[in-house]
Design a protein that fits this description.
Layout lengths: L4 E4 L14 H12 L5 E3 L4 E8 L2 E8 L6 H12 L6 E7 L7 E5 L7 H10 L5 E6 L9 H5 L5 H15 L2 H5 L3 H9 L3
Helix pairs in contact: 1-5, 2-3
Amino acid sequence: MVPQLIVGLGNPGKEYEATRHNAGFFFVDELARAWNTSFTMQAKFFGEVARAKVNGSDVWLLKPTTFMNRSGMAVAAVTNFYKIPPEAVLAVHDELDLQPNEARLKIGGGAGGHNGLKDMIKALGTQEFMRLRLGIGHPGHRNQVADYVLHPCAKAEREAIDDAICRCLHIMDLLMGDKMPLAMNKLHTKG
């Protein structure tokens, strides 16, 4: 399935702009630049939306402004309006279980404690959507997670996340060409 909606998960506002939890926003911002499109605020979609033409079809990029825990509201608004099936949604989010230079692509699965994914699963009524997981590392103890994800990355950490984003951008042609297994293989293979 080719993504028709690519949603970057994050929190709106200047105070959250550079935080680890906004890795999804980092990615869709770069993708919008690569696809020569820009975001505009769309109140009816509870977020910032951009439209790109890829292989002759519209692809929507979304940055919810509902805060992470309510991401599903924005995703449901776009998918309902444009009649996009859940399996054509790609959620891009921060991942504690991967290091900052790592990224993984997958289809389906649980929320893994990620509140943005939890709310998307609830809103879409299924776990069967694509995910692009951007590593941010783990603080070491679960009691430190909330504070950790809401703080800005160190410079070297952000550079590592940006490197992973760059590698992800290089597989988008495969993903948009309905070549998910090839995109996964290319992204997950070191070297």
